[in-house]
Write a structure and sequence with these properties.
Elements lengths: L21 H7 L3 E5 L4 E3 L7 E7 L2 E6 L5 E7 L4 E2 L12 E4 L3 E7 H10 L1 H27 L2 H12 E3 L5 E3 L5 H8 L3 H13 L3 E4 L2 E4 L8
Antiparallel strand pairs: 1-8, 2-7, 3-6, 3-8, 4-5, 4-7, 9-10, 10-12, 11-12
Helix pairs in contact: 5-6
């Protein structure tokens, strides 16, 4: 037998395992893996809940909505992140969660999570830090909606997501729809479309292969 056949490389681990921290990985191993199709709603705002969802692959969107169907996106969560921890106090779900694309999650019951919190101080510390970040983000979001106009919120969102390119431009990695942007910054889709069109006509922004590209620094005011 050729010697090369005796030295086969070990198979690569699943991609998600490289994205989970050891503390979250240990908790994920205690859950049940479930697959969700794109647009599936995993959590409904106002429902009772007894599980958290750890994203192994894909992406989830947390959002709130009103009786007229208007939505505000609270956050996007990819591999290594988890949602549903706000119901660990036994209260109702504070937001809805939807699969943005086909997604695999480890679903862990509240009882299991509470035991894990008691047994794994690394996870407990990470959970506390996550809840603090969530509170800060909520404060910043409330401040933004209350004190900034729509253009300022749009500018801040684009600047935050833009990644520098070799040619001096900055590109938004995600292919964002106008509705997705509107849900994130709390305004109408029509307003987003109008502002983006104005920025494109002014030479500040371009759409290349369905990606938003910042051609130069966005103006402070519009």
């Amino acid at each position: 037998m050729p010697s090369s056949a005796l030295r086969r490389p070990a198979p690569n681990p699943p991609a998600h395992l490289t994205l989970l921290t050891p503390a979250v990985d240990r908790l994920a191993a205690l859950g049940t893996q479930r697959r969700y199709r794109k647009n599936t709603v995993l959590i409904e705002e106002g429902d009772s809940g007894d599980s958290i969802y750890i994203v192994l692959s894909g992406q989830l969107r947390a959002y709130v909505s009103d009786s007229r169907g208007r939505e505000i996106t609270l956050g996007l969560h990819g591999p290594g992140e988890y949602v549903g921890e706000m119901s660990l106090d036994g209260g109702l779900r504070s937001a809805s969660v939807q699969a943005v694309e086909p997604t695999v999650c480890a679903v862990v019951t509240r009882e299991t999570v509470m035991r894990h919190i008691a047994d794994d101080p690394d996870f407990t510390q990470a959970l506390i830090q996550r809840l603090i970040r969530r509170a800060r983000l909520a404060t910043e979001s409330a401040r933004s909606i209350a004190l900034l106009d729509v253009y300022s919120r749009l500018r801040a969102m684009l600047e935050r997501r833009a990644q520098p390119q070799g040619d001096g431009t900055r590109q938004i990695a995600e292919r964002l729809t106008h509705q997705a942007i509107a849900s994130e910054i709390g305004c109408s889709r029509e307003m987003v479309s109008r502002l983006l069109k104005d920025l494109e006509e002014g030479g500040y922004l371009a759409v290349i292969d369905r990606h938003l590209v910042l051609m130069r620094d966005l103006p402070a005011r519009w």
